[in-house]
Design brief:
This protein is of the alpha/beta class and 141 residues long. It contains 4 helices and 8 strands; from the N terminus they run H-E-E-E-H-E-H-E-E-E-E-H. It has one domain: Rossmann fold (3-Layer(aba) Sandwich), CATH 3.40.50.
């Protein structure tokens, strides 16, 4: 199963934020993601310095290292699976906040088709301004 599950354009339209960096982008880029710069598999976002406001939709098969780096960075949004795991519990122990996405939320696969993931997804924000933005679009927990 592929980890190439992209966030749809409509999601970013609703969020209304421009990012400095997409840390987990497709290598061809994702022109609908409002980010000035992106990292992909070729230049491994985990090995790069992150600056500014980041967008992160990490591989759902192995998000732990991504979540840790995102928390250390402290400025951005992360689309994550709801998981019974230590890394997910670690998120709850921080000042980051989240909203649960509706069960109808769809990703875009590499062929451009809308697809659903078997796990529920959550949108996390870290940083005061980002949490205010999150409050605008859903019930923050």
């Amino acid at each position: 199963m592929s980890d190439e599950w992209y966030t749809p354009k409509s999601f970013f339209d609703d969020l209304g934020v421009e990012f400095d960096l997409d840390v987990c982008a497709p290598c061809s880029g994702a022109p609908w993601v409002p980010a000035k710069k992106y990292y992909c598999l070729d230049n491994d976002g985990l090995k790069q310095d992150w600056k500014g406001l980041v967008w992160m939709n990490p591989p759902y098969s192995s998000p732990k290292q991504w979540v840790e780096k995102w928390l250390d960075h402290g400025n951005g949004f992360a689309l994550l699976p709801c998981a019974k795991s230590k890394w997910y519990n670690k998120l709850f122990a921080t000042d980051s906040k989240f909203i649960l996405l509706p069960s109808t939320f769809k990703f875009i696969n590499i062929a451009g088709d809308k697809i659903s993931h078997m796990m529920a997804s959550s949108l996390w924000a870290i940083g005061e301004q980002n949490i205010k933005t999150l409050n605008r679009i859903g019930k923050v927990r």
